[in-house]
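Methods, example record. To illustrate the input and output format used throughout this study, we show the complete record for Equilibrative nucleotide transporter 1. The sequence lines were provided to the predictor; the line carrying structure tokens was produced by it.
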Amino acid sequence: MGIVTTASSAAVDGDSESATLLIPKTSSTNPQNIPKDNFNMAYIIYFTLGAGYLLPWNAFITVVDYFSYLYPDVSVDRVFAIVYMLIGLTSLLFIVAFAHKSNSFVRINLGMVLFVIALLTVPLMDVWYIKGRVGVYVGYYVTVAAVGLCGVADGLVQGGVVGNAGELPERYMQAVVAGTAASGVLVSVLRVLTKAIYPQDAHGLRQSANLYFIVSIVVMLLNIIFYNVAHRLPVIKYYNDLKTQAVNEENEEKGDLTGKLWRSTLWDVVGTIKWYGCGILIIYVVTLSIFPGSVTEDVSSEILKDWYPIILVAGYNVFDLIGKSLTPLYLIENAKVAIGASFARLLFLPLFYGCLHGPEIFRTEIPVTVLTCLLGLTNGYFTCVLMILTPKTVQLQHAETAGIVLVLYLVVGLAIGSVLSWFWVI
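The corresponding predicted structure is encoded as:
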């Protein structure tokens, strides 16, 4: 195949671009040839992209109190979660099937435009149609449709961004994954500020919701600019050229990847990364079956009152970011350990059950808060570890496909976890 495993370490002027990539034999892998990521611009862009594609989802679930006020007869956050995840899953299935016939640059730009349209829908509808009125369920159905559109956009953007990051050194995948956590922290900070500043009546909730969506729209527009700048950066062009060379070598040896050859290649990639994918899947089955549904709806505090779920969500998001920021300090390189630890997180299910239905001491604020923070910390760290390790197990020209398939596992886990979250109600 003309492919070998080669480690590229520190780049020019000490700029660390270390990663183990499966790259063409004929490529020059001398660290001195790797362009410097000046001012860490590529890292910042991928961090912002990671934050951007999850920000719409975080905005929808964080303003759930306003949607619950408008539509009191439905379990808004659980409906949102199922619609978002299932539509995102369907979107990803199409992308995996036709990834070889489409361009990630086009997919990502299209997805970000769809995000902007969906995010604009809610505040515009609120200003011109809902106007803060309770029980206008046409608005509810339009909002659910906007969530579904975000699911389509997420499949396009997340699959593409993670796939692109998989073709780069590990620090860029870490940037994307940490960015996803940062979006949750940003929304939590906004939630705390708006709750402190705005009155918690209909008018205050409405102002808060519109602020979240405006901030999300601004970030998404910034992402569109950033992404269209990223491919011009020397360090990104360098790795894109390596991929192009790898693709050309494979085409010379096997011919164009179409029909049976593409399906065979796809199944080879799936077979290579399946256990990594199962680790990611189980991480999100556990997390989504507990968070945000159980944390926002099923616990209560006489002391903290309606601040309690806000503090829990903020705690989860902060520790998720901490977990996703730990891999530069220590990365578990033994995949079996990382995958085993992911399955060990199933212990959170009986522990949280004890916090909901166990002895009174387990249902107090401290045990619930500690468990929620640990849920976030382990979710962040092991997600980041597996996302970094997975694309490096396949040849460079298939790293994007591996990244998309990994996101597919992730979204399946999210969808299953969203469905299982209803069992806390039952």
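Annotations derived from this record:
Confidence is low (pLDDT under 50) at residues 1-16.
Residues 391 and 402 are 6 Å apart (CA to CA).
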